Amino acid sequence: MGCCEFPAAAQGCDGAFTVDSSRVTFGRGCLAELGDRARALGLRRVALFSDARVAGLPVFRGAHDSLVAAGLDVMTYTDVHVEPTDESFAAAARFARESNPDGYVSLGGGSVIDTCKAANLYATHPADLLAYVNAPVGEGKPVPGPLRPHLACPTTAGTGSEVTGIAIFDLLALSAKTGIASHALRPTEALVDPDCTASLPPEVVAAAGLDVLSHALESYTARPYVHRPAPERPSLRPMSQGANPWSDLGCREALRVLGQFIERAVRDASDSEAREQMMWAATLAGIAFGNAGVHAPHGMAYAVAGLVRDFRPAGYSADEPLVPHGMAVILNAPAVFRRIAAVSPERHLEAARLLGADTRGAAAADAGEVLATELIRIMRAVGMPNGLGGVGYADTDVAALAEGAYPQQRLLQNAPLEMTKPVLADLFRQALRYW
Ligand SMILES: NC(=O)c1ccc[n+]([C@@H]2O[C@H](COP(=O)([O-])OP(=O)(O)OC[C@H]3O[C@@H](n4cnc5c(N)ncnc54)[C@H](O)[C@@H]3O)[C@@H](O)[C@H]2O)c1
Which domains does the chain have, with CATH numbers? Predict the structure, then answer.
């Protein structure tokens, strides 16, 4: 027997897991600590990143004033593209190179934090954009050294980007999302202030909250770390190391909190308890998935987002069609969990129970259906579209979606079942409509 409920590692597989996170400060009002924390890191000139909408909110003024009050010079970049692209990453990196700050602050959702990570990376270690991007889409080169300090301040309860070493963008030439994954990208500090989410529209609370839900569910059901081949050298152990005892703790608690609070947080912006709990779930799930890795619903989401034609969601400040990240993920989830539950039915039933389903008397063979039914109930309660058909896809798109998802091997190999192109096509077909 290995650690806790995990079996001992098989021959050639990894017998250990590593826990990493940014330094986290959590609590209502803690954004006011920003200036002091930046100064304590030895910073004098910082670049403050945001997007146009967040830059118009009182929290942006608060962050800016806190930095100035601590005696820092602040340069602002508020042109972050919501759902970033290779072009928007490149523009942000240009700004970072030209302004040459000695540290970075990001204030916004995952789009802002990811863009700030990329700007820091390409300004510190200049290279072609595809150099550090995950293979096979990019060259997958290792980041050559540390980046400059980065304080990340999330304003959505969603991506967990403030504690992960991941930056995601849309590669326009391929119409596909992809990303950069490296320990070096992980922000130095995360200041997680639930009050920052008070101004979020319900549609963003819903999509970002379902991203959190899928982080927890995918990390909990990922291939266990003891089934992953041992790395060539211990220092090369990937961040997507599979389900492990540490990530399980965060996943279980995040699922329980989400089950209790997601509907309240979407329904009522003045429900500060629900919004705070959602932020806590996002932090727990972010640390968990940053150390375990997500799998098929996220891998498939990159194609769903990348091939969008004309879907324009309410609540988002983008000018062009887009499927918000959390929506693109959750639309695949019921189909995936129905299929994979047989690998670890007890985990799938436990997840359904934590989310609020009545699992008494459920047999192992029912696990997939019980969990899928609970997911669909939550999706409907918070206003998600009815499957991929609801964001404009049809049966005729299934082959292209499977082609688009298949290169996401970093994620797909973390699934407990092999995700071949025919399997992906079948999952996309099952995800077209749920009710
Ligand atoms: N790096 C990671 O580990 C990771 C993980 C998951 C997703 N992502 C990426 O993160 C991005 C999605 O991020 P997100 O879901 O946080 O949303 P987002 O950053 O794209 O923001 C969504 C919308 O909400 C607005 N907004 C943000 N905070 C607000 C606030 N407090 N009040 C009012 N409006 C606000 C934004 O202006 C935007 O219109 C995607 O590109 C996704 O691929 C990254």
Answer: 23-197 (3.40.50.1970), 202-225+232-431 (1.20.1090.10)
